[in-house]
Amino acid sequence: MATAGQVIRCKAAVAWEFNQPLVIEEVEVAPPQEKEIRIKVRIVATGVCQSDLYFLCKCLNQTMFPAVFGHEAAGVVESIGPGVTEFQPGDTVIPLFMPQCRECRLCKSPKTNLCVNGSAGRIDERSFERSRISCRGRKLLQFLGTSSFSEFTVVKEISVAKIDPAAPLHKVCLIGCAICTGYGAAVNTAKVEAGSSCAVFGLGAVGLAAVMGCRAAAASRIIAVDINPEKFEKAKVLGATDVVNPNDHSRPIQQVIQEMTSGGVDFSFECIGNVEVMRSALESCAAGWGVSVIAGWTDMQNFSAPPIQLMTGRKWTGTLFGGFKGKDGVAQMVRAYLDRKLMVDEFITHNLRLDQVNEAVELMKNGRWCDPKLRCSLHD
């Protein structure tokens, strides 16, 4: 492309300060360096994930500002840096916050989807030095190495998944985080069994994807739990057999679910990032064999539970990106969508322009969303 090797000036939503509105700025995106790829996100799409809101408005680590958020996107390769062999300009891709180098001991192991090259939220001075995005003479942190709230971004070759060019990028962008995280929590991490009972706590995009994963695994009963009843109909569309609002009950929600299921569910999923709900989800499981999976992100508090909950046979585990290896899992999920084996369209509740990003943030804060999708083409 004509811009290869040049600095690109484009629009991005910049977070200059903690818990402040994002500002649409002109930024400079440097050419890709060794083993890097520059991706054109403009005229395609990026999702707005709960993790973006967490780090913008809740996380106490304020050393990460200024930053460009966004990590759930799809786009087209604009140019490649030296040493890149897997991609060519024009390839359709999804950037990954969970890299897959395919060479390290973790990538070679079938037991994990981690990669030794992954950062998983670690932020330090080197994070700014590595950034290819700058504004007003300052380097901007590339959130999770991606920064899709920009019309162009630069990512490592190991952090990009090539996908079928037939995929509608304005929809499959959501596979880059929420859908894989929730769906994989059920099918990969918990390994939900046919005929089993499940409870999903939190019906944002991750929770709804977990509901969908439980149905794909042929669970016979799927209890969807949320304090916002407006989410219940969508949960039923995706596979929920029961819906429960904890505010409708005077007893703890784990007691309600235990009574509903004569002792607890086989599998439970915490998809919020709330340590109290993590314990509730664990205690909703059946003694002897119940498995509870933590899929919601938080690093503000520690979680705890009485040891007897585990001593009686329950298992408590967690998941990042639903256990999917980045490159392989994303391509697999996009193919499942194209084969009509995976629902994606149902997750998109709003279509907004990049300059409406603060509206998307407010939708998240108010819980009136699944995953607002920002069209990154700017309109007059």
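[next item in queue]
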Amino acid sequence: MEGTLQTSIHICHGNGQWMSRLPEKLWDIPLYNLALPGSHDTMTYCLDKTSDISGNESKLVKFLNKCMPCIVRPIIMKWSTTQVLTVTEQLEAGVRYLDFRIAHKANDPSANLYFVHMVYTTITVQDILWEVLRWLETHPQEVVILACRNFDGLTKKLHCLLIACIKEIFQCKLCPRNVVPTLRTMWQRGHQVIVSYEEDVQVDKHRELWPAIPYWWGNKTATRALIQYLERMKQVGRPEKFFVAGINLTENLRYILVHPFGSLKKMTLRSLPCLKIWIKQQYPGPKKECVNIIAGDFIGNHDFVKDVIELNTKINPPLHCQSKGTGTNSISFSAS
């Protein structure tokens, strides 16, 4: 498994500029009607093995970790880590939706914010936002969606500091929510970042923030059950704007006990061949059964990013959406 993972990571770095290579007929389609690859729990590649357990976790988990840290902590790390690529590597691989679970550590007197998934990360939110900016500056035609979620332990003051930090770092690259986010419009205006913020009060105050993006989370341990859930959601119908279909499996206590030598990585890699088939059957677009963002774990494997990007070749926009010019009519992607 490890060998396959490393090979995939190396090859899929060729998708760093895939948006700039889309044919001109897609430049006037809103991004919420295109297919975009995303990473679930983006920041878990840098979880801090020594950090406290998140305030959101159950009292039982905290108690067990306190009583048997040598046993419980390795288990937590195995089932909390969902990515191995850094943010820059994920962006270079073609990911355009980043799932940021933001938190403030309990009893931390500083205003530093971290990412969290059971435990906190070693890297601060501010450092990662600067890293994303540096990547965007060398990829001027790529657009990234930052989904800011969770907000464990954030006060009103910390929300204000976080939003000020986002504005200071990205400045005019931030796309206001009153803009229809097509590639042509964003390129013309110099916008490269869409920030969704899972706190309605703050969204109402800042036009640079977009409402929380719905995430179809199956909460399933079995691949077939996850696919059935996603198909049921498609029958209900997609939201009007951005939304995520999560192809990530989710463990529970029973599953962990039955698989004592397992990990989320092993669980995910076993599911990817079937999920790959499901992905290839999808269509992006505004219709009820269409998809938009597809997010997964360990995104460097099994051509996940390439398969999602290639869904855009199925789009045939009406003639009035196609602008005059000498746009290219094909998409070239790097295989993983």
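[queue empty]
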